[in-house]
Design brief:
By secondary structure, the protein is mainly α. The chain has ten helices and no strands. The longest helix is centred in the C-terminal third of the chain and has 15 residues, at 127-141. The mean pLDDT is 90.
């Protein structure tokens, strides 16, 4: 990754050409994947401002929101991730991270509302179990044990081999005791 970052930096600093917008976005993307969130924020924000109509802007907004989230700057991610919800190809990923942004602020009702909207509509097989698990957690954190237990139960039925299955089972048992 460091070499990729160096190459993209050289392209971005060079003369503007037809691939300049791609290079600017990829520079921020590489910083994000290297967990250099301060740098990613600066580069992605610059890429978005310089290339407002480019096809990478929705993904850049998503990564920018996630970078702010990692820096615990909660005002920006909720705004950016809410914007990403308007882009069909970003809805599922943006929903996941917007729900997590709310949950990290202990705004569990807001997290629940966002996560509920995509249930039953998720097409990405990687995200479907995570979104359902996060919804169950949002219910649980509000002490809505009946709803949480149902969501954990559904998770266990559909994704019994998922890495979160043990946690879902533990939480479901707790919910059953509380209802």
């Amino acid at each position: 990754h460091p070499k990729a970052h160096e190459v993209h930096q050289q392209v971005v600093k060079g003369p503007r050409g037809p691939r300049s917008a791609d290079a600017a976005y990829l520079l921020g993307f590489v910083s994000f994947t290297m967990d250099q969130h301060d740098l990613a924020i600066q580069e992605l924000d610059g890429s978005i401002k310089a290339n407002k109509d480019h096809s990478h802007v929705p993904m850049a907004n998503l990564l920018l929101g996630r970078s702010y989230l990692e820096k615990k700057n909660y005002k920006h991610p909720t705004q950016l991730l809410s914007q990403a919800l308007t882009t069909p190809e970003q809805v599922e990923e943006a929903t996941l991270w917007l729900g997590r942004a709310y949950a990290r602020q202990e705004l569990f009702k807001e997290a629940e509302e966002v996560l509920k909207k995509v249930q039953g509509k998720v097409e990405n097989p990687r995200l479907a179990p995570i979104l359902l698990f996060d919804l169950a957690n949002a219910h649980f954190r509000q002490e809505a044990f009946k709803e949480a237990g149902e969501a954990y139960g559904k998770f266990l039925q559909q994704y019994k081999e998922h890495e979160q299955s043990a946690a879902a089972m533990k939480q479901r048992v707790y919910c059953l005791h509380r209802t």
